[in-house]
Amino acid sequence: xxxxxxxxxxxxxxxxxxxxxxxxxxxxxxxxxxxxxxxxxxxxxxxxxxxxxxxxxxxxxxxxxxxxxxxxxxxxxxxxxxxxxxxxxxxxxxxxxxxxxxxxxxxxxxxxxxxxxxxxxxxxxxxxxxxxxxxxxxxxxxxxxxxxxxxxxxxxxxxxxxxxxxxxxxxxxxxxxxxxxxxxxxxxxxxxxxxxxxxxxxxxxxxxxxxxxxxxxxxxxxxxxxxxxxxxxxxxxxxxxxxxxxxxxxxxxxxxxxxxxxxxxxxxxxxxxxxxxxxxxxxxxxxxxxxxxxxxxxxxxxxxxxxxxxxxxxxxxxxxxxxxxxxxxxxxxxxxxxxxxxxxxxxxxxxxxxxxxxxxxxxxxxxxxxxxxx
Length: 374
Hints:
Blueprint: H1 10-32, H2 39-72, H3 78-109, H4 140-162, H5 168-193, H6 199-207, H7 210-229, H8 231-236, H9 238-258, H10 267-272, H11 274-283, H12 286-290, H13 299-307, H14 309-327, H15 335-371
Protein backbone atom coordinates (compact mmCIF):
# COMPACT_ATOMS: atom_id res chain seq x y z
CA UNK A 1 0.00 0.00 0.00
CA UNK A 2 0.99 3.65 -0.30
CA UNK A 3 2.32 4.73 3.07
CA UNK A 4 1.18 8.07 4.48
CA UNK A 5 4.14 10.36 5.09
CA UNK A 6 3.70 9.96 8.84
CA UNK A 7 4.14 6.18 8.58
CA UNK A 8 7.15 6.14 6.29
CA UNK A 9 10.51 4.79 7.48
CA UNK A 10 12.73 7.85 7.52
CA UNK A 11 16.00 5.95 7.11
CA UNK A 12 14.80 4.33 3.88
CA UNK A 13 13.67 7.72 2.60
CA UNK A 14 17.19 8.99 3.34
CA UNK A 15 18.64 6.14 1.28
CA UNK A 16 16.33 6.89 -1.67
CA UNK A 17 17.12 10.60 -1.44
CA UNK A 18 20.87 10.01 -1.36
CA UNK A 19 20.66 7.54 -4.26
CA UNK A 20 18.61 9.74 -6.59
CA UNK A 21 20.64 12.83 -5.65
CA UNK A 22 23.88 11.07 -6.60
CA UNK A 23 22.39 10.03 -9.94
CA UNK A 24 21.04 13.50 -10.78
CA UNK A 25 24.24 15.31 -9.70
CA UNK A 26 26.24 12.91 -11.86
CA UNK A 27 23.99 13.61 -14.84
CA UNK A 28 24.26 17.37 -14.24
CA UNK A 29 28.05 17.07 -14.49
CA UNK A 30 27.66 15.17 -17.76
CA UNK A 31 25.35 17.92 -19.03
CA UNK A 32 27.86 20.75 -18.63
CA UNK A 33 31.14 18.82 -18.97
CA UNK A 34 30.31 15.90 -21.31
CA UNK A 35 33.89 15.19 -22.42
CA UNK A 36 35.92 16.21 -19.37
CA UNK A 37 38.04 13.60 -17.56
CA UNK A 38 38.99 15.81 -14.61
CA UNK A 39 39.42 13.85 -11.38
CA UNK A 40 36.58 15.75 -9.63
CA UNK A 41 34.15 14.96 -12.43
CA UNK A 42 35.31 11.34 -12.46
CA UNK A 43 34.50 11.10 -8.74
CA UNK A 44 31.07 12.69 -9.30
CA UNK A 45 30.28 10.27 -12.13
CA UNK A 46 31.48 7.34 -10.01
CA UNK A 47 29.13 8.39 -7.24
CA UNK A 48 26.34 8.50 -9.81
CA UNK A 49 26.97 4.80 -10.41
CA UNK A 50 27.03 4.26 -6.64
CA UNK A 51 23.57 5.85 -6.51
CA UNK A 52 22.22 3.08 -8.75
CA UNK A 53 23.99 0.46 -6.62
CA UNK A 54 22.32 1.95 -3.55
CA UNK A 55 18.95 1.61 -5.28
CA UNK A 56 19.76 -2.04 -6.00
CA UNK A 57 20.50 -2.85 -2.36
CA UNK A 58 17.45 -0.91 -1.16
CA UNK A 59 15.15 -2.54 -3.68
CA UNK A 60 16.44 -6.01 -2.81
CA UNK A 61 16.03 -5.22 0.90
CA UNK A 62 12.39 -4.15 0.43
CA UNK A 63 11.31 -6.86 -2.00
CA UNK A 64 13.15 -9.51 0.01
CA UNK A 65 11.34 -8.28 3.09
CA UNK A 66 7.95 -8.66 1.38
CA UNK A 67 8.76 -12.22 0.28
CA UNK A 68 10.13 -13.14 3.69
CA UNK A 69 6.96 -11.85 5.36
CA UNK A 70 4.77 -13.92 3.01
CA UNK A 71 6.80 -17.00 3.85
CA UNK A 72 6.64 -16.36 7.58
CA UNK A 73 2.84 -16.01 7.30
CA UNK A 74 2.75 -19.31 5.37
CA UNK A 75 1.41 -17.60 2.27
CA UNK A 76 3.31 -19.85 -0.12
CA UNK A 77 0.66 -20.71 -2.70
CA UNK A 78 0.90 -19.54 -6.30
CA UNK A 79 -1.90 -16.97 -5.91
CA UNK A 80 0.21 -15.12 -3.33
CA UNK A 81 3.21 -15.19 -5.65
CA UNK A 82 1.08 -13.91 -8.54
CA UNK A 83 -0.30 -11.13 -6.32
CA UNK A 84 3.27 -10.21 -5.37
CA UNK A 85 4.23 -9.88 -9.03
CA UNK A 86 1.08 -7.92 -9.90
CA UNK A 87 1.77 -5.40 -7.15
CA UNK A 88 5.40 -5.14 -8.22
CA UNK A 89 4.47 -4.62 -11.89
CA UNK A 90 1.88 -1.96 -11.06
CA UNK A 91 4.68 -0.15 -9.23
CA UNK A 92 7.25 -0.27 -12.02
CA UNK A 93 5.75 -0.98 -15.44
CA UNK A 94 3.29 1.89 -16.10
CA UNK A 95 5.91 4.61 -15.56
CA UNK A 96 8.49 2.64 -17.52
CA UNK A 97 6.26 2.14 -20.56
CA UNK A 98 5.05 5.72 -20.53
CA UNK A 99 8.62 7.09 -20.53
CA UNK A 100 9.63 4.54 -23.16
CA UNK A 101 6.84 5.77 -25.44
CA UNK A 102 7.78 9.40 -24.77
CA UNK A 103 11.36 8.63 -25.76
CA UNK A 104 10.12 7.08 -28.99
CA UNK A 105 7.96 10.13 -29.75
CA UNK A 106 10.88 12.50 -29.05
CA UNK A 107 13.14 10.61 -31.47
CA UNK A 108 10.49 10.81 -34.16
CA UNK A 109 10.00 14.54 -33.55
CA UNK A 110 13.74 15.11 -34.00
CA UNK A 111 13.67 12.88 -37.11
CA UNK A 112 16.13 10.45 -35.56
CA UNK A 113 16.12 6.73 -36.30
CA UNK A 114 14.70 4.31 -33.77
CA UNK A 115 16.93 1.52 -32.41
CA UNK A 116 16.76 -1.71 -34.37
CA UNK A 117 15.97 -3.78 -31.30
CA UNK A 118 13.22 -1.45 -30.02
CA UNK A 119 10.84 -4.35 -29.42
CA UNK A 120 13.25 -5.81 -26.84
CA UNK A 121 12.57 -2.84 -24.55
CA UNK A 122 8.99 -3.98 -24.01
CA UNK A 123 10.22 -7.20 -22.39
CA UNK A 124 13.27 -5.66 -20.69
CA UNK A 125 15.56 -7.70 -22.95
CA UNK A 126 17.57 -4.80 -24.35
CA UNK A 127 20.52 -5.56 -22.03
CA UNK A 128 19.77 -9.08 -20.85
CA UNK A 129 23.06 -10.58 -22.04
CA UNK A 130 24.61 -7.83 -24.17
CA UNK A 131 25.43 -4.11 -23.85
CA UNK A 132 22.52 -1.72 -23.54
CA UNK A 133 21.69 0.21 -26.75
CA UNK A 134 22.22 3.97 -26.83
CA UNK A 135 18.53 4.72 -26.27
CA UNK A 136 16.63 5.22 -23.00
CA UNK A 137 19.91 4.21 -21.37
CA UNK A 138 18.79 4.64 -17.77
CA UNK A 139 16.40 1.71 -18.25
CA UNK A 140 19.31 -0.73 -17.92
CA UNK A 141 18.90 -0.87 -14.15
CA UNK A 142 15.15 -1.51 -14.41
CA UNK A 143 15.84 -4.57 -16.56
CA UNK A 144 18.17 -5.92 -13.89
CA UNK A 145 15.56 -5.42 -11.19
CA UNK A 146 12.64 -6.86 -13.17
CA UNK A 147 14.43 -10.15 -13.87
CA UNK A 148 15.88 -10.34 -10.37
CA UNK A 149 12.36 -10.14 -8.91
CA UNK A 150 10.96 -12.57 -11.43
CA UNK A 151 13.56 -15.33 -11.11
CA UNK A 152 14.21 -15.55 -7.37
CA UNK A 153 10.57 -15.52 -6.17
CA UNK A 154 9.71 -18.18 -8.78
CA UNK A 155 12.67 -20.34 -7.72
CA UNK A 156 11.75 -19.85 -4.07
CA UNK A 157 8.11 -20.84 -4.46
CA UNK A 158 9.08 -23.75 -6.70
CA UNK A 159 11.39 -25.08 -3.96
CA UNK A 160 8.76 -24.48 -1.27
CA UNK A 161 6.28 -26.66 -3.16
CA UNK A 162 8.69 -29.62 -3.04
CA UNK A 163 10.46 -29.06 0.29
CA UNK A 164 7.38 -28.60 2.45
CA UNK A 165 8.96 -29.88 5.64
CA UNK A 166 12.00 -27.63 5.50
CA UNK A 167 12.24 -24.45 7.56
CA UNK A 168 10.83 -21.86 5.15
CA UNK A 169 12.93 -18.89 6.23
CA UNK A 170 16.11 -20.94 5.96
CA UNK A 171 15.01 -22.06 2.50
CA UNK A 172 14.68 -18.36 1.61
CA UNK A 173 18.32 -17.94 2.61
CA UNK A 174 19.56 -21.04 0.77
CA UNK A 175 17.69 -20.29 -2.47
CA UNK A 176 18.98 -16.71 -2.46
CA UNK A 177 22.55 -17.87 -1.84
CA UNK A 178 22.41 -20.57 -4.52
CA UNK A 179 21.05 -18.17 -7.12
CA UNK A 180 23.77 -15.67 -6.23
CA UNK A 181 26.37 -18.37 -6.84
CA UNK A 182 24.75 -19.36 -10.15
CA UNK A 183 24.78 -15.80 -11.48
CA UNK A 184 28.23 -15.21 -10.03
CA UNK A 185 29.48 -18.20 -12.05
CA UNK A 186 28.33 -16.50 -15.27
CA UNK A 187 31.01 -13.91 -14.64
CA UNK A 188 33.63 -16.62 -15.22
CA UNK A 189 32.41 -16.96 -18.80
CA UNK A 190 32.58 -13.19 -19.24
CA UNK A 191 36.06 -12.97 -17.71
CA UNK A 192 37.48 -15.69 -19.95
CA UNK A 193 36.00 -14.37 -23.18
CA UNK A 194 36.41 -10.60 -23.23
CA UNK A 195 39.15 -8.05 -23.69
CA UNK A 196 38.40 -4.69 -22.07
CA UNK A 197 40.15 -1.46 -23.05
CA UNK A 198 38.36 1.11 -20.91
CA UNK A 199 36.05 1.67 -17.96
CA UNK A 200 33.25 2.68 -20.34
CA UNK A 201 33.63 -0.58 -22.23
CA UNK A 202 33.52 -2.60 -18.99
CA UNK A 203 30.51 -0.64 -17.76
CA UNK A 204 28.59 -1.24 -20.98
CA UNK A 205 29.46 -4.92 -21.38
CA UNK A 206 29.36 -5.96 -17.72
CA UNK A 207 28.08 -3.42 -15.18
CA UNK A 208 24.89 -2.71 -17.13
CA UNK A 209 24.09 -6.27 -18.25
CA UNK A 210 21.30 -8.18 -16.52
CA UNK A 211 22.88 -11.62 -16.14
CA UNK A 212 26.02 -10.17 -14.53
CA UNK A 213 24.23 -7.92 -12.01
CA UNK A 214 21.36 -9.91 -10.50
CA UNK A 215 23.60 -11.52 -7.88
CA UNK A 216 24.44 -8.11 -6.42
CA UNK A 217 20.75 -7.22 -6.04
CA UNK A 218 20.28 -10.36 -3.98
CA UNK A 219 22.62 -8.92 -1.38
CA UNK A 220 19.57 -6.93 -0.29
CA UNK A 221 17.66 -10.21 0.18
CA UNK A 222 20.40 -11.59 2.41
CA UNK A 223 20.54 -8.30 4.30
CA UNK A 224 16.86 -8.39 5.30
CA UNK A 225 17.18 -12.09 6.22
CA UNK A 226 20.06 -11.43 8.62
CA UNK A 227 18.52 -8.27 10.04
CA UNK A 228 15.29 -10.13 10.83
CA UNK A 229 16.97 -13.18 12.31
CA UNK A 230 19.69 -11.34 14.25
CA UNK A 231 17.79 -8.19 15.14
CA UNK A 232 19.41 -7.66 18.56
CA UNK A 233 22.91 -7.93 17.12
CA UNK A 234 22.26 -5.42 14.33
CA UNK A 235 20.54 -3.01 16.70
CA UNK A 236 23.38 -3.19 19.21
CA UNK A 237 26.21 -2.79 16.71
CA UNK A 238 24.47 -0.72 14.02
CA UNK A 239 26.87 2.23 14.42
CA UNK A 240 29.95 -0.01 14.33
CA UNK A 241 28.67 -1.86 11.26
CA UNK A 242 27.91 1.44 9.49
CA UNK A 243 31.37 2.82 10.29
CA UNK A 244 32.95 -0.39 9.00
CA UNK A 245 30.90 -0.02 5.81
CA UNK A 246 32.09 3.56 5.29
CA UNK A 247 35.71 2.51 5.88
CA UNK A 248 35.36 -0.42 3.47
CA UNK A 249 33.87 1.85 0.81
CA UNK A 250 36.57 4.52 1.20
CA UNK A 251 39.42 2.00 1.40
CA UNK A 252 38.21 0.27 -1.75
CA UNK A 253 38.25 3.46 -3.80
CA UNK A 254 41.48 4.78 -2.27
CA UNK A 255 43.19 1.52 -3.29
CA UNK A 256 41.77 1.91 -6.81
CA UNK A 257 43.15 5.45 -7.00
CA UNK A 258 46.59 4.73 -5.47
CA UNK A 259 47.30 1.64 -7.56
CA UNK A 260 45.48 2.95 -10.64
CA UNK A 261 43.30 -0.15 -10.94
CA UNK A 262 41.36 -0.09 -14.20
CA UNK A 263 39.18 -2.69 -15.92
CA UNK A 264 41.82 -2.93 -18.64
CA UNK A 265 44.68 -3.73 -16.25
CA UNK A 266 42.77 -5.50 -13.46
CA UNK A 267 39.69 -7.08 -15.03
CA UNK A 268 39.53 -9.85 -12.42
CA UNK A 269 39.16 -7.23 -9.68
CA UNK A 270 36.36 -5.41 -11.50
CA UNK A 271 34.49 -8.60 -12.40
CA UNK A 272 34.70 -10.56 -9.16
CA UNK A 273 35.47 -8.10 -6.36
CA UNK A 274 34.65 -4.43 -6.94
CA UNK A 275 30.87 -4.40 -7.31
CA UNK A 276 30.42 -7.05 -4.63
CA UNK A 277 32.37 -5.00 -2.09
CA UNK A 278 30.56 -1.81 -3.07
CA UNK A 279 27.20 -3.46 -2.45
CA UNK A 280 28.42 -5.00 0.79
CA UNK A 281 29.68 -1.65 2.07
CA UNK A 282 26.36 0.00 1.18
CA UNK A 283 24.39 -2.81 2.82
CA UNK A 284 26.35 -2.24 6.04
CA UNK A 285 24.79 1.24 6.31
CA UNK A 286 21.25 -0.11 6.42
CA UNK A 287 21.02 -1.31 10.05
CA UNK A 288 21.93 2.21 11.22
CA UNK A 289 19.80 4.12 8.72
CA UNK A 290 16.80 1.78 9.09
CA UNK A 291 16.56 2.59 12.81
CA UNK A 292 17.27 6.29 12.32
CA UNK A 293 14.74 8.47 14.13
CA UNK A 294 14.50 12.05 12.94
CA UNK A 295 11.74 14.67 13.06
CA UNK A 296 13.69 17.80 12.20
CA UNK A 297 13.73 20.46 9.52
CA UNK A 298 14.81 18.18 6.66
CA UNK A 299 12.15 15.52 7.24
CA UNK A 300 9.60 16.80 4.69
CA UNK A 301 12.10 17.60 1.88
CA UNK A 302 13.67 14.14 2.23
CA UNK A 303 10.26 12.45 2.19
CA UNK A 304 9.27 14.54 -0.84
CA UNK A 305 12.35 13.58 -2.86
CA UNK A 306 12.00 9.95 -1.82
CA UNK A 307 8.36 9.78 -2.93
CA UNK A 308 9.23 11.24 -6.33
CA UNK A 309 12.54 9.37 -6.78
CA UNK A 310 11.26 6.84 -9.34
CA UNK A 311 9.75 9.57 -11.52
CA UNK A 312 12.92 11.66 -11.20
CA UNK A 313 15.06 8.69 -12.21
CA UNK A 314 13.04 8.01 -15.35
CA UNK A 315 12.74 11.63 -16.48
CA UNK A 316 16.01 13.37 -15.67
CA UNK A 317 18.31 11.90 -18.30
CA UNK A 318 16.66 10.84 -21.56
CA UNK A 319 13.66 13.16 -21.33
CA UNK A 320 15.32 16.29 -19.93
CA UNK A 321 19.11 16.21 -20.15
CA UNK A 322 19.52 14.81 -23.67
CA UNK A 323 16.97 17.23 -25.08
CA UNK A 324 18.63 20.21 -23.41
CA UNK A 325 21.85 19.09 -25.08
CA UNK A 326 20.06 18.97 -28.43
CA UNK A 327 18.65 22.47 -28.01
CA UNK A 328 21.75 24.25 -26.65
CA UNK A 329 25.44 24.23 -27.58
CA UNK A 330 26.48 24.08 -23.94
CA UNK A 331 30.23 23.68 -24.51
CA UNK A 332 30.40 27.27 -25.77
CA UNK A 333 28.57 28.65 -22.71
CA UNK A 334 30.18 30.75 -19.97
CA UNK A 335 30.31 29.48 -16.37
CA UNK A 336 27.26 31.59 -15.50
CA UNK A 337 25.32 30.20 -18.44
CA UNK A 338 26.29 26.64 -17.50
CA UNK A 339 25.11 27.29 -13.95
CA UNK A 340 21.81 28.51 -15.38
CA UNK A 341 21.53 25.38 -17.52
CA UNK A 342 22.03 23.18 -14.44
CA UNK A 343 19.24 25.03 -12.61
CA UNK A 344 17.04 24.69 -15.71
CA UNK A 345 17.79 20.96 -15.82
CA UNK A 346 16.90 20.53 -12.13
CA UNK A 347 13.73 22.65 -12.29
CA UNK A 348 12.38 20.92 -15.41
CA UNK A 349 13.22 17.49 -14.01
CA UNK A 350 11.47 18.24 -10.73
CA UNK A 351 8.44 19.82 -12.42
CA UNK A 352 7.76 16.92 -14.78
CA UNK A 353 8.52 14.37 -12.05
CA UNK A 354 5.81 15.94 -9.88
CA UNK A 355 3.39 15.88 -12.82
CA UNK A 356 4.22 12.24 -13.57
CA UNK A 357 3.84 11.19 -9.96
CA UNK A 358 0.66 13.14 -9.15
CA UNK A 359 -1.34 12.46 -12.31
CA UNK A 360 -0.05 9.05 -13.40
CA UNK A 361 2.00 7.10 -10.88
CA UNK A 362 -0.08 7.88 -7.78
CA UNK A 363 -3.51 7.07 -9.32
CA UNK A 364 -2.14 3.74 -10.58
CA UNK A 365 -0.74 2.88 -7.14
CA UNK A 366 -4.07 3.71 -5.55
CA UNK A 367 -5.85 1.48 -8.05
CA UNK A 368 -3.37 -1.30 -7.24
CA UNK A 369 -3.92 -0.97 -3.50
CA UNK A 370 -7.70 -1.07 -3.91
CA UNK A 371 -7.72 -4.15 -6.10
CA UNK A 372 -4.63 -6.13 -5.12
CA UNK A 373 -4.14 -6.13 -1.36
CA UNK A 374 -0.69 -6.64 0.11
